[in-house]
Amino acid sequence: QVQLVESGGGLVQPGGSLRLSCAASESRVNFDSMGWYRQAPGQQRELVATLTSGVTTNYADSVKGRFTIHRANAKNSVTLQMNSLKPEDTAVYYCNAVSATATYWGQGTQVTVSS
Question: Between 8 and 73, whose confidence is greater?
């Protein structure tokens, strides 16, 4: 069973930066895409950023120009660099990976933007 392990969440002031990392426990699986979603209290889970075939990126309009998704050095790993954070970015962030046969989710990491 593939597990996605996230790290890097925390508390940051508005305008600050955080980097989230996600690594899959299994390197032999080929993922078509990896990415990040988030869910704020009382809200539905929404797409933040995805990386498809290691090349094509897709971002939510609300984070364009502030967040960047990168393919990390290790296979099946991605990072999300978050700059100019706003209070409305506060949410639990989930790593997501999609293979030809299954979709995987991480356990989530809390990001809180507050002064």
Answer: 8
